[in-house]
Every structure is written in structure tokens, then in C-alpha cells.
Design brief:
alpha/beta, about 30% helix, about 160 residues
């Protein structure tokens, strides 16, 4: 899914590219079409609320994995990091070992991608594993970002 933040043009360009590709019968690439969520200020340890976001996801039918595509500000960066991903799941037993496969894929890339794992996170509905991808241009080109996303979808679809 892409386009949740309309100002993230780089992520929208990658998502638009992916939407035009045949990624297999069980893969959907969707531009976010729900209402924007109002940012809720919650206290430490409380669950942030994104009701419109998750309603949009649930309305798509059965979902095993959700890749939520974003991009950081396009600025000159000193670090070499091209992207990072955060793999969140409420129940790590549902897709046991999947984070390891995703991390191995990210580590095999010619660009630097940091991978983080959040097992038992309360922010993701049960049964869905969410991979939040933050692309960091100009350290990653549009072409390389599209290749990265194609490969990530390939890893997830081999389950």
C-alpha cells in the first residue's frame, strides 16, 4: 500500500510503478483510498489510533502481509542508509521465520537497508504482518527502490 501520506511523492512513484506490474495472483498493490486519520496524541504505552487506515486494509479481504510504503525527506544525507524496514506482528507464530527471510533479503542487497523486528506489537491487527518500508532518497534511486520492492514482494509471496 502506498499514498497514505500524499506528500511522499517518491513512495507514490514507486507504488504507481508496482501497481502497473503483474506480481502474481495473490498480490495487490493499492493506493490508499481511505480518509486521512487525525493524529491522536496518546500517552506512553498507549496504542496509537489509525481507524481509517486499518478499516481500508480490512476492506481488501484476507491479508497476510501489508507492505506500507513511505519515504523520508529528500535531503543530503551523510549516512549510507538507503532504506529501513520495520517488521511488526502481533503473533510471531503465524508466519514463523518470515522476518529472518525478509532480513536475509535486505542484507543481500547492494544498498544498505536496516531491518527491525517488533514481535508482539499491539499496533497491528492479529493475523496480519506489517512491513513498514521507509525509502531514503537520494541514497536509493527510483529504479533501485522498485527492484527492492519487487524482491520484497517475491520473498513474501513464496510462503
Amino acid at each position: 500500500m502506498y499514498g497514505y501520506h500524499r506528500r511522499e511523492k517518491f513512495a507514490i512513484d514507486v507504488g504507481t510503478y508496482m501497481e502497473g506490474r503483474d506480481l502474481g495472483g495473490n498480490v495487490k498493490v493499492l493506493k490508499y483510498g481511505g480518509k486521512p486519520d487525525v493524529r491522536e496524541h496518546v500517552g506512553f504505552g498507549q496504542k496509537p489510533i489509525f481507524p481509517n487506515y486499518w478499516k481500508f486494509v480490512r476492506n481488501q479481504g484476507h491479508v497476510d502481509f501489508l507492505i506500507d510504503l513511505h519515504n523520508g525527506e529528500i535531503v543530503k544525507r551523510k549516512e549510507k542508509l538507503a532504506a529501513f524496514l520495520i517488521y511488526g506482528t502481533k503473533n510471531p507464530d503465524v508466519h514463523r521465520g518470515m522476518f529472518g527471510k525478509v532480513k536475509d533479503y535486505a542484507d543481500s542487497l547492494p544498498c544498505q537497508v536496516a531491518s527491525f523486528y517488533e514481535p508482539g506489537t499491539p499496533y497491528v491487527p492479529a493475523g496480519i504482518d506489517q512491513i513498514e518500508v521507509e525509502l531514503l532518497p537520494p541514497r536509493i534511486s527510483l529504479q533501485r527502490a522498485c527492484e527492492f520492492m519487487n524482491g520484497l514482494v517475491g520473498v513474501l509471496s513464496r510462503t
